[in-house]
Design brief:
alpha/beta; 37% strand
Length: 447
Amino acid sequence: MNAATEPMARLHGLIQQAEAQLPGRDLDWLQTQRRGAVEAMDRLGLPNRKSEAWRYTSAERLLEHALAPVTEPFTALQESDLDELALVDTDAYRVVFANARLVLELSRLDDLPDGVSVGGLREALEQDPERVAPWLGRAAADHGHVFNALNTALIDDGMLLHVAEGCVLDKPLEVLFLTEPGEDVLTAAPRTLMVLERGARATVIERHASLGQAMYFSNGIGEALLGEDAVLEHYRVQEESPAAFHIHGLFVRQEAGSRYVGLTAALGAAWSRTDFNVDFAGEDAHCELNGLYLAGDRQLVDMHLNVLHQVPGCTSEENFRGILHGKGRAVFDGRILVAQDAQRTDAQLHNANLMLSRSAEVDTKPQLEIYADDVKCSHGTTVGQIEPEQLFYLRSRGIAAAEARKMLCLGFAGEILDACPIEGVRRRAEARLANALAQVDRNDEED
């Protein structure tokens, strides 16, 4: 075995270690998906810098490790552990996963409205698989890259939300994906499947966090299937261990008149990548993707967008902002494709980056591919530092340098966070930003 094939062999070995415990091994349709995912892994190959999608993001740090599957449910989690992990203080439904396995006793799913069901994907595959069959993998059929295919090959557990036609989830649903690192580099493969039928509405708050500081690999996929006129508000906070690897593929499929509003805050992990994939399948649908990312020393944050306008009359707005300090690195690759038949498309894409040190680095590439002639589209990017005039203005009014810088950074992030109605999400992002700025100030003092 040569050095080039060894990482792929380790990924295949990971699947072989896990497959005996995976649910639904007697389901032909699910096993077909899993086998197809393994074949896709071999076809797609390992990411390298020759691939445009991975040109600025090396996966070598991840692939050099031997990865271990989740073999046992994590049972040490207590109710008191959730006090600092929950993002929603007010009344909300809650579903908890530890090492990508459902912890039902810590979940809060009583009195769900009629027509709404929330539970574990593993349980659904074991007890009512034919109900899941039309949905699972529908939005994420095109794997995109080897890690998405790996997640499908390892389909085990995750969150299943179904809102029937015309029904409304009356309170937010908080989804906690918590990882407890072990001696080996644990590989969790969380999955979320959100199905909103015609006219349904729901709000989902998703948090990915760690119960320790060690290394692990969280490789997730989220699928959102929105029926006609359905509305989903979806807020995600990635706050993994500072030694963790995090990859997440979000796949959204929208039917006519539907509305998806999403915000992702990438605040943790040593190495993280999020892929946003939006497919408009019906006319007059609307999508909003907002993102905030924070990268400091020894951190890499990668954001990829692939928004496909293939039918007429749809609108999309994408607004992402990054704050980088120390030797932090970020990648933003935003692509909007407007097909020939997608007349009357309105698509707006913008990326802004605030650099707090000369050692930080960002590679940003917003892209528009337009094949229709009746469209309203724009894209742009900015990379800059705090304006000295702004800092001088605040300092001249008696505000200390550190506090002035904090105010300006929070103002920069505010364009993203102010659009989020969930106070806990805003508060958590602001706290992480404040901690990062405190580190910047300490480094300045040492220098």
